[in-house]
Amino acid sequence: MEVTWQDQTGQYGDGTEYELRSPQLQITRSDGTSLTDKIATSNRIPPPVFGLGLLEAVPEATIRQLADPDDRDRNGISGRPNYVWDVVKQAPALGRFGWKANTPTLLQQSAAAYVDDMGVTNPLFPDAEGVQDITRKFWSLPRFTCKP
Questions:
Q1: Is 43 within 8 Å of 23 (Cβ atoms)?
Q2: Which residues of the chain have pLDDT under 50?
Q3: Is 110 within the bounds of a domain?
Q4: For the chain, what is the domain count?
Q5: Residue 35: inside a domain, yes or no?
Q6: Which helix (H) or strand (E) holds 120?
Q7: How far apart are CA 115 and CA 98, in angstroms?
Q8: Range of the domain at 87
Q9: CA 19, CA 8: separation in Å to the nearest integer?
Q10: Residue 126 falls within a domain, yes or no?
């Protein structure tokens, strides 16, 4: 993969000038050939997941208690819990991960990224025939323990 940058200049309505810079990707196969037009690609910015194991440990009751949908404390921040589908439990669950808290667990977040962003089927999201490109053992998340 080769990354080059494309610069674009412009002007706001008040006359202030700006310059934008965007990455341009050139993907070639190991034999040097380009990808065909049938293969769709796009630039992605994944949500960061470092430290989120700690968020998974926060009790749901605490998150519900901290909800402030109407900004009653007037600090300029409002929000409410988002309930989403947990594919492991086959039930609604509190969303904690993703740009809009649309995934309940780190396990489901990573499984969804595998299948949606990379096309890699897995135990949580197999293909229509049940085929999985990777096993749970292959992709298991490391387990960390916090020590005081």
A1: yes
A2: 143-148
A3: yes
A4: 1
A5: no
A6: none
A7: 15
A8: 51-139
A9: 6
A10: yes
Count of residues for the chain? 148
* Residue 142: predicted pLDDT: 55
The one-letter amino acid code at 103 reads: T
Residue 142 DSSP label? P
25 in Cβ contact with 43 (< 8 Å): yes
Look at residue 138 in the predicted model and tell me its pLDDT: 74
Residue linked to tokens 């995934």: 103
Q: Calculate ∠ Cα 118-121-88, nearest 5°.
A: 115
Identify the pLDDT of residue 148: 44
Closest CA to 133 of 145, 146, 147, 119: 119
What is the rounded distance in angstroms from the CA atom of residue 63 to the CA atom of residue 86? 17
- Residue 99 tokens read as 């740009």
Is residue 39, in this structure, part of any structural domain at all? no
